[in-house]
Amino acid sequence: MRKPPPWGEALSLSLLDAGERRKALSFRRDHDRSRYIVAHTALRLLLAARLQCHPVDVLVGREPCAGCGGPHGRPVLLDREAGPHFSLSHSPGLSLVAIADVPVGVDAERVPGRRTVELCLERLHPEERREVLAVPVKERPLWFCRLWARKEAYLKALGTGLGRGLERDYLGDREGPGAPPPPTGWTVRNLSCGSRDTTHAAALAVPPGTRVPGAPHDVNWCVFQDEVHGPASGSR
Questions:
Q1: How far lies 114's CA from each of 110, 118, 192, 201, in Å?
Q2: Between the ranges 50-54, 68-72, 226-230, where is the mean pLDDT highest?
Q3: Is 3 inside any structural domain?
Q4: pLDDT at residue 188, as a whole number
Q5: Residue 180 sits in which domain range?
Q6: Domain total of the chain
């Protein structure tokens, strides 16, 4: 059984910056707040270990948005132009943190209902839509979830997020002659979710020339909280 952190919520909050604390305390449901605090504390602990500093000294901000120039672009370390780069994603039952010397994106998703899949189809690349519809109905939500995780991971690594049209880039399963080309040079792949492989999907995206690990390290203490309290989601 996975367990929550062996300290109280107040200590975790003390490691976050003022903006993160305001965000955490804005959640109305206890398990939403707990999930957010655990994921962001884990990110700070990992970055602090990499930077050899205290977690409160990790200064996190945002690049200008690649679409509109607003202050909500890719998350970055404010005092270190050369990196490291990082990405965080958390959904009910699964959290991922990636830290790298190059821009990186990760995404964790819980398998959606069939209605959600239907509503999202029109936003996909035309060939991706055809592939989704070719999958048997019972298998479609999981197939779609893995596709969606790849797309979000890639767009986070690119720095645009969902502001870039989902129809612009092909990240489906087809390969070889006649298949649409995937983003040139990028590695975008699904990651194993272990025992949750049938209920969740996760993906990693890195730019050309980057070595890709075989599997993520599990930094999600919040799984136990999810089993007790129920669903919610979010990502960064």
A1: 13, 6, 22, 16
A2: 50-54
A3: no
A4: 94
A5: 9-235
A6: 1
Question: Token digits for 79?
Answer: 């005092």
204 within domain boundaries: yes
The residue ranges of DSSP E strands in 2-117, in sequence order, are 60-62, 75-77, 85-91, 94-100, 105-110
Residue 168 lies in a domain: yes
Residue 31 pLDDT: 83
Angle CA(86)–CA(224)–CA(162) in degrees, nearest 5? 35
Q: What is the mean pLDDT of the segment spanning 184-213?
A: 88
- Burial of 84-110, coded b for 16+ CB within 10 Å and e otherwise, reads bbbbbbbbbbbbbbbbbeebbbbbbbb
Q: Is 150 helix (H, G, I), strand (E, B) or coil?
A: helix
Q: How confident is the model at residue 165 (pLDDT cuts 50, 70, 90)?
A: confident
Q: What is the pTM of this model?
A: 0.83
Q: What is the CATH number of the domain that holds 231?
A: 3.90.470.20
Distance CA 109, CA 61 (A): 24
